[in-house]
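User: I've been trying to design a sequence by hand for this structure and keep getting stuck. Would you show me what you'd pick, starting by listing the structure so we're on the same page?

Assistant: Good idea, let's start from the same input. This is the structure you sent:
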């Protein structure tokens, strides 16, 4: 009867356990990816249907998330569910089936790649006899491991406490209500759940105060940067789109860059000088992901303010990923929540990364589609091979400093201290030394560099 009752669920299992791995090692886990056939995600504001990922893409992402915290996956499965159960999400037959898989694989953790209510989480833990993590809990675990700075640690802890606050019923069901006083007049006292929730709330308030201090410190840093007006360029994108690899390519830095979800958590800023001398501050930010927990968006707002304050945003896409369109939609939605319009071509540049992974046919087709885009065409690059990087730098410099202009200046002998500056901040085409000791220099320079040259020459003349 249980099988008939759960006949609306089908499962594709992918056992990954190999004999001989019984020695102590990483925590053993089972990953379940529920696909709800009647569940249609709509955009919160427009109420339009959102792009849905394929089951294979969701499975691969869930596996990647689990492996990001070094879980040893003994079994992974995609489960199609027509009728989600309020008590356990999965039908009773599937719960029994996974309980057997957990038992046989000696799994300690079950990852369910879907939001679970506190009741569903508690019931599944009881039925499966294992720790259960839903998607939000798993992402919080990853962020907890990856946070390196004090700010990142505070943000993750705040998000974790907010997540726990609604789930105390799971942890404290064995505790009974305590009496507030003797006899009838005493009445019921504070429950252990209420007491613990109050303690959590006090911790949350304290963490928010500490993060507010961090925010004020960041504001001071931004104020100092404005005094030396270097424009800020922020790289954003879906996790594992190659942001850190691009950051390293543009800056020559050595930021951790791995083929791993959320390899980078704490933001990194570096000063970069573009080909024609324009200085910028480049910012590498935390990767976005579909259904990013609201706890995390709220907690990481101080970090994400680097994106809000940026003069230019590079929206990096892994164009080789079959679900790149859905990933781009998720990034654009989070940017919109931060007040950044992804469709603003003056402020946002779409960058297609990993074109080296495309075959010639797909590459030609995608580049042709991009060139015909109604908005500004995207810039195709490979952060690994360096292809397209020069074109990207040129576009950034044009946005930040204006188009290149042809310029000819005559430098008097008393002004020769400017010659070195011209070579560093422009593309010198020719130079001729005159009989009177002056030099005539023809160069290509950005609009802002031309204005700076004219200003420096005026100061020299006035001096």
């Amino acid at each position: 009867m249980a099988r008939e009752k759960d006949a609306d669920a089908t499962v594709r299992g992918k056992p990954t356990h190999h004999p001989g791995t019984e020695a102590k090692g990483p925590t053993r886990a089972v990953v379940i990816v529920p696909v709800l056939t009647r569940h249609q995600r709509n955009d919160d504001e427009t109420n339009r249907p959102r792009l849905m990922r394929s089951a294979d893409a969701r499975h691969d992402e869930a596996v990647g998330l689990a492996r990001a915290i070094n879980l040893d996956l003994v079994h992974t499965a995609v489960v199609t569910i027509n009728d989600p159960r309020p008590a356990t999400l999965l039908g009773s037959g599937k719960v029994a089936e996974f309980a057997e898989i957990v038992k046989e694989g000696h799994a300690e953790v079950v990852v369910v790649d879907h939001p679970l209510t506190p009741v569903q989480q508690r019931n599944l833990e009881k039925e499966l006899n294992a720790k259960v993590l839903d998607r939000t809990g798993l992402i919080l675990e990853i962020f907890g491991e990856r946070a390196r700075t004090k700010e990142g640690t505070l943000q993750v802890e705040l998000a974790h406490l907010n997540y726990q606050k609604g789930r105390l019923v799971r942890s404290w069901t064995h505790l009974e209500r305590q009496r507030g006083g003797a006899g009838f007049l005493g009445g019921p006292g504070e429950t252990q759940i209420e007491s613990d929730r109050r303690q959590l709330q006090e911790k949350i308030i304290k963490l928010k105060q500490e993060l507010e201090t961090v925010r004020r410190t960041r504001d001071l840093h931004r104020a100092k940067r404005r005094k030396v007006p270097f424009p800020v360029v922020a790289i954003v994108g879906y996790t594992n789109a190659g942001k850190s690899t691009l950051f390293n390519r543009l800056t020559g830095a050595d930021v951790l860059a791995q083929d791993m979800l959320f390899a980078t958590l704490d933001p990194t800023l570096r000063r970069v000088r573009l080909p024609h001398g324009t200085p910028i501050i480049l910012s590498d930010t935390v990767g976005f992901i579909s259904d990013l927990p609201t706890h995390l968006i709220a907690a990481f707002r101080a970090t994400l303010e680097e994106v809000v304050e940026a003069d230019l945003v590079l929206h990096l896409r892994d164009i080789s990923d079959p679900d790149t369109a859905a990933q781009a939609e998720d990034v654009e939605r989070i940017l919109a929540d931060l007040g950044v319009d992804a469709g603003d071509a003056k402020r946002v540049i779409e960058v297609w990364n990993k074109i080296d992974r495309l075959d010639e046919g797909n590459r030609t087709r995608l580049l042709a589609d991009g060139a015909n885009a109604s908005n500004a065409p995207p810039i195709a690059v490979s952060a690994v091979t360096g292809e397209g990087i020069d074109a990207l730098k040129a576009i950034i410099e044009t946005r930040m400093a204006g188009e290149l202009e042809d310029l000819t200046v005559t430098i008097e002998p008393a002004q020769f201290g400017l010659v070195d500056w011209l070579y560093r901040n422009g593309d010198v085409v020719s130079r001729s030394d005159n009989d009177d000791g002056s030099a005539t220099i023809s160069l290509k320079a950005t609009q802002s560099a031309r204005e700076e040259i004219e200003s420096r020459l005026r100061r020299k003349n006035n001096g």
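That's my pick for every position. To get oriented when you compare it with your attempt: The chain has a mean pLDDT of 79. The first strand starts at residue 9 and ends at 15.
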